[in-house]
Design a protein that fits this description.
This protein is an all-alpha fold and 72 residues long. It has helices spanning 2-12, 20-42, 45-65.
Amino acid sequence: MTIWHIRNEVIFGRCQHKTFLEVTFKGTRWLCHWAQLVGQCEGNMEHIIHVCQALEVTTLEFFASFGWAFLI
């Protein structure tokens, strides 16, 4: 869903292309928000948020291992 939204922003909003990091972080933020809304009923909100955080850290470490400089 995030990829579709970013595609629409680039195509129809005529904004600049997004980086892989932007797409990843937008997706994990959306998933964390969704987990807070839905996860309370199902009881797995903390697990989903933890997985999102782990994905963000892993993505940053992956890019850093190839010399990408960024600020957190």
